[in-house]
Amino acid sequence: MDSAFLSIDHVSVRHSNSTAESLCDVSFDVAAGEVIGVLGSSGSGKTTLLRAISGLQSVSTGNVVFDGVDITKSPTHLRGIGLMFQEHALFPHLDVADNVSFGLRMAKMPKPDRSERVAEVLELVGLAGFGSRDIASLSGGERQRVALARTIAPSPLLLLLDEPMGSLDRVLRDRLVSELGDLINRLGLTVVYVTHDRSEAFELADRIAVLDRGQLVQLDTPKILDAQPATAHVAQLLGHR
Amino acid sequence: MVGALPLMDAAFKSRGGTHRSSVWRLLAATPPLAFLGVFFVWPVFAILLRGLRPNGVWNLAAFSDVFSDPAMRRVLWFTLWESIASTVLCVIVALPAAAMFARLRFRGKRLLWSALLVPFVLPTVVVAVSMLGVIGGGGLAGVNLNGTVWAILIAHVFFNYAVVVRTVGATWSTIDPRLEESARILGAAPWRVFADITWPLIRSSVAAAASIVFLFSFTSFGIVLILGGLSHRTLEVEIYDQTAKFLHLDIAAVLAIVQLVVVVVILIWFGRSQRRRSVLVNQRSASETEQSAVTSSQRWLIRSNILFMAVLFGIPLGLLVVRSFSTPSGWGFGFYQALTDSRGGSTSFVPPIDAVGNSLLFALIATVVALALGLCAAWAIVGNGSDVSNSRFSRWTDTALMIPLGTSAVTVGFGFLIVFDEPPLNLRSSLWLIPIAHAIVALPFVVRLLVPGLRSIDPRLREAASILGASPRRVWWTIDVPIVGRALAAAAGFAFAVSLGEFGATAFLARPDRPTMPIAIYRALGRPGDYNFGQAMAMSTILMVLTIVVMTVIDRFRPAGVSEF
To answer: Does B474 reside within a domain?
Structure first.
């Protein structure tokens, strides 16, 4: 597929210490504006996949091609990809506004434009006026929103989300998932969304990739996946008996 | 800054490249270890040689002389039981306060928690002088405890109270209260809950704190020298007297060796208890475990603890300040004015006020030296946090740098005296000797503050910055520097305060015309009369205020939360 926006081409990741999860010959393409859900139990290589795409993890073999450019060897900070961490990794020594504007500062955006963009993004995630708040004073849901705002502020072409709802309770989670879905649609974002939660994947994703012990076992639309799970493990992950 | 490089190197890569990183770590570890080698290991080695091999022949005669002398045996025995008594007393009075800080929420808690550090860093000489004001002859308490062991024990509790409260309190606050609650539900009475649940969980932190208190009491110098009188003498005081008064360097060396052996044994035990400590499971953050005082016994716990602290700290220090203004001719600055007078005593021919300038200068140099070396050491110890193969190297470096903490300042001063007064390094008359000794004493504190600072940087923060487009250099500037900056400021303040108050090593090294403030205070105490005692109190007040100012400045940079130091 030449039209692929992001192309994962036979990517393998091996860790020096064998206990960590790894990837084994994973290939798939993502079209522009598409939302891919990555489903798998813990240790299946979901997080490693995101780290490989973003460059935090160097790949052993294979290539990552993004927007027509092979970025396999380029350093993380030059890739222009957004990643939202599982535990958010907000900078504790900066306030909300400075966290959100960090990426803009790195992109050398002039200061007035920066504060305008920060206000805009905070408004977008429902945290208007939170700019001067201390990170420590935020609730779990607020932190999640700040992390999202920080990730989308530099307008990355590709958004990687690593269990973004990880530590939140069910009610909050349901609300934020639907909000996130609206936001992705509105901004027309291309997203790779890692989760272990079936319902999140089904609600947000156009297609779902299922990882099992580092291997891609199935990649299909939710409907097909549900109707024809490729293996017993996939069926189990989807909650089939 | 060489020390910065390993960190930047760590930021350059996610994983792998272990080889390159260990080379940087080795390089970073070199300056502090070399400094330690020249200014600590060499002097200690010289003491060993002096004691074991007097006149160039291996000979243990000096040891049998010392051990068969009843006076020396009394000194050894007193040092031992005085330290044990101080430790037990300190743990008993401090545990209730640790419980209060760990479990209860009350107004002013954070302030009190930081204020506790003030007595810990106050110069020994200041504490001794303030104790004299309360329990000395004509003191407030109405009884003269001066020269009794009680004066020494109370002063040791004064110093070490914060060590126990903060060490045990920090651990206690991470214990999930639900463990205790479930024991209650299963039918355990409150004392059983403490004995069967709480105590086993805090025991190792109590052991850690107790070993520190024991070490500090065992190597206590200024307190015993001033409050012990003629009958109560510890090893430290004896080493000093044998060197400075009787010039029996061989006997002093033997005593220093005995002391070193005890210190090393305690340090090994301390290391063990520290390692066991790190296995606490299910830690909670302190804010989750505290609750407001509801029952009357909880309120009583808070009130009695605060009253105790007010008496222990408030009365001696308050009285010190008050009496420094209470001259024979009424209230005024008489004693302070006298500090500018060079005729005050026959032994000193410089005005005592000069000591303030000397102390500040020495403290500045000591701080810069200790910080530079401490940064290198901390970077070498922490590395990039991801590779396991170097953990033995980091533990070894860590332990090596902790040794001066346990070793007495008197040993450092004594070692300097016998090593640096002859070629190749004749520094006897050099002004550098004092700040270098202070840096050796301060280095363990600096490393202790910087290592957690560096470790506290979650590697994901660096990754997040990198994702957002920060180059490795910018990651270092925007993430590492600001976060470590706080620890760095705290370490600087600590090193400065330690240097300001250092007495043991300085007593050996200070030249008559360049006294530091603690030395000037000790000299004033050595001269008879209310006039000289008044000067000692005035100088102590100045030193106390300076120390408190430094600690207050530090506290503004201290990260929030219940940390040990």
So the answer is: no
Task: Classify residue A178: in a domain, yes or no.
Answer: yes
Q: Give residue B202's domain range.
A: 73-244+288-320
Please count the CA atoms within 13 angstroms of the CA of B546 that sit on its side-chain side: 22
Q: Does B549 contact chain A (CB < 8 Å)?
A: no
Could you tell me the CATH number of the domain that includes residue A158? Answer: 3.40.50.300
Complex ipTM value: 0.78
Q: How confident is the model at residue B535 (pLDDT cuts 50, 70, 90)?
A: confident
CB contact under 8 A, A154 and B464: no
* Structural domains in chain A (count): 1
Using the Cα atoms of residue A61, residue A66, residue A69 and residue A71 in order, give the sign of their dihedral.
negative
CATH classification at residue B185: 1.10.3720.10
CA nearest neighbour of B436 among B356, B511, B502: B502
Q: 3-state DSSP: chain B helix, strand, coil percent, rounded to 5?
A: 75, 0, 25
Classify residue B230: in a domain, yes or no: yes
- Please, which residues bridge with residue A190 across strands? A158
Q: Which residue, B371, B361, B542, is CA-closest to B445?
A: B371
Instruction: Please check whether residue A85 touches B, CB under 8 A.
Output: yes
Instruction: Please report the DSSP string for A47-75 in residue order.
Output: HHHHHHHHTSS--SEEEEEETTEE-TTS-
Number of compact structural domains in chain B: 1
Chain B, 453 to 472: residues with Cβ < 8 Å from chain A are 458, 460-461, 463-472
Tens-binned pLDDT, residue by residue, of chain A (241 aa): 446 899 999 999 887 655 555 888 899 999 999 999 999 888 888 888 998 998 888 888 899 999 888 998 888 888 888 888 887 888 877 889 999 988 888 888 899 999 999 999 999 888 989 989 988 888 888 988 899 999 989 888 899 999 888 767 788 888 888 888 888 888 888 999 998 888 888 888 999 999 988 889 999 998 898 888 888 888 888 877 5
Residue of chain B whose Cα is closest to the Cα of A53? B467
Name chain B contacts of A154, Cβ cutoff 8 Å.
Answer: 468-469
Peptide bond into B452 cis (omega under 30): no
B382: CB partners within 8 A, 6+ apart: B394, B451, B454, B455
> Measured in whole angstroms, how far is the alpha carbon of residue B41 from the centre of its chain?
20
| CB contact residues (below 8 A), chain A span 49-68, against chain B | 51, 54, 56-58
Q: What is the pLDDT of residues B378-418, one digit of tens each?
A: 878 876 544 444 566 777 777 777 777 767 788 888 888 88
Question: Which three-class secondary structure string do you get for B395-462?
Answer: HHHHHHHHHHHHCCHHHHHHHHHHHCEECCEECCCCCCHHHHHHHHHHHHHHHHHHHHHHHCCCHHHH
Q: Exposed, middle or buried by CB within 10 Å (0-12, 13-18, 19+), for B426? A: exposed
Tokens of A207: 């297609």
Write out the residue range of the structural domain in which residue A162 sits. Answer: 32-58+75-237
pTM of structure:
0.72
Identify the sign of the CA torsion A146, A148, A150, A155.
negative
Domain assignment present for residue B515? The answer is no
* B20 domain-assigned: no
Q: Is residue A68 part of a domain?
A: no
User: Shortest CA distance to B488 belongs to which of B438, B441, B434, B452?
Assistant: B452
Residues A122, A100 contacting (CB under 8 angstroms): yes
Highest mean pLDDT among B10-14, B140-144, B174-178, B375-379: B375-379
